[in-house]
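During the no-cost extension, the postdoctoral fellow (Dr. R.K.) reprocessed legacy sequence entries with the updated structure-token encoder. One reprocessed record is reproduced below for audit purposes.
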Amino acid sequence: MNHTSNYLKSSLDLLHSYKNLGEKAMEQVSEEKLFWQYNEDSNSMATIVKHLSGNMHSRWTDFLTTDGEKPWRERDGEFENDIKNKEEMMQVWEKGWKVLFDALESLTESDFEKKVFIRNEAHTVVDAINRQLAHYASHIGQLIYLGKMLATGPWKSLSIPKGQSKTFKKP
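Re-encoded structure tokens follow.
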């Protein structure tokens, strides 16, 4: 496996991991609390999902051939809390990730030599992927933080539970 293939596999593995972490956080929150906002300037879990999905559709649709900030994107609308229920929220979530994974899984080694644009700014394919990895990781972190605050029962750790680090250390 060459460096390009290794990078793409690593990126896909990380993105699948982030998706899984977000889902595990949302699973621990009641449907009603998925729509809770601390104040008007903060986002609910559902709003974060809507924004992530909108970003994914814009960035990854025709990734190699059109600017990642599509003219049809309604970014401001992504922050309106108008998803009606958990089922709709999860459909929005899945559609965004599907666009992302379809685009990345279709990349070839020669695609990594191309330039792509996001808001008229040129990026290497690696830089564009890294930009989105960082963006998505920050929002998944928000979902986890909100999930911990809003969980309907005791929080089920998504990594090593508090006080159990020694159990996970390998000799």
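The chain has a mean pLDDT of 95. The chain has one domain: 3-168. The remaining legacy entries will be reprocessed before the final report is submitted.
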